[in-house]
């Protein structure tokens, strides 16, 4: 169930829980948000695994114990924030982004700074369908990257 390097859920387990979250949110009429977090990995990364592990630890530290975190597509993390609408989502995402930006990662004989981009979408505000919700959050990652990275983007 868990990715042994990062201690977060594997992709297939996360996808199942995301589908379940949509069903529960529809049934019980509540908001939730999806974050997609992608490292802005530039240049040569010698300790990429260590950087990804540290980013996972920061995400775990910055979200609630009831939030769900999964590792998807290699270096991407997805987070389900139950009962979170856009303002709460933006607050959490910015907190994670700020922590990563201010963290000093070790690299061989020195230190390096890294950043992340975060795309988010809220249910049902931005979509009430699973694929469209994920697509919206992915589009927001693209917008953040196109703006130079180290950004949080939500649909208008």
Describe this structure in words.
With 156 residues, the chain is an alpha/beta fold. It contains 4 helices and 8 strands. It has helices at 11-28, 48-62, 86-102, 130-146; strands at 9-10, 32-39, 68-72, 76-82, 104-107, 110-113, 116-123, 152-153. A 6-stranded mixed sheet has the order 1-3-4-2-7-8, with helices on both faces. A two-stranded antiparallel sheet has the order 5-6.
Biggest β-sheet description? 6 strands, mixed
| Net shape | globular
DSSP E strands, number: 8
- Computed over alpha carbons, the radius of gyration is 15 Å
Low-confidence stretches: none
Fraction in helix: 40-55%
Portion in strands: 25-35%
| Widest sheet: strand ordering | 1-3-4-2-7-8
Spatial separation of the terminal alpha carbons: 35 Å
The pLDDT mean sits at 93
Query: Helices and strands: which structural class?
Result: alpha/beta
Summarize the helix and strand pattern as letters.
EHEHEEHEEEHE
Q: How many distinct helices?
A: 4
């Amino acid at each position: 169930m868990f990715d042994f390097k990062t201690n977060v859920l594997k992709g297939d387990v996360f996808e199942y829980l995301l589908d379940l979250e949509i069903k529960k949110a529809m049934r019980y009429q509540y908001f939730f948000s999806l974050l997609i977090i992608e490292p802005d990995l530039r240049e040569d990364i010698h300790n990429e695994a260590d950087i990804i592990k540290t980013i996972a630890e920061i995400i775990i530290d910055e979200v609630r114990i009831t939030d769900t975190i999964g590792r998807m597509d290699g270096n991407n993390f997805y987070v389900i924030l139950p009962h979170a609408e856009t303002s709460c989502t933006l607050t959490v995402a910015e907190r994670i982004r700020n922590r990563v930006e201010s963290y000093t990662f070790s690299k061989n004989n020195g230190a390096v700074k890294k950043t992340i981009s975060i795309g988010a979408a809220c249910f049902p505000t931005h979509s009430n369908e699973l694929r469209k919700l994920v697509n919206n959050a992915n589009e927001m990652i693209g917008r953040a990257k196109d703006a130079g990275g180290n950004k949080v983007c939500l649909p208008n």
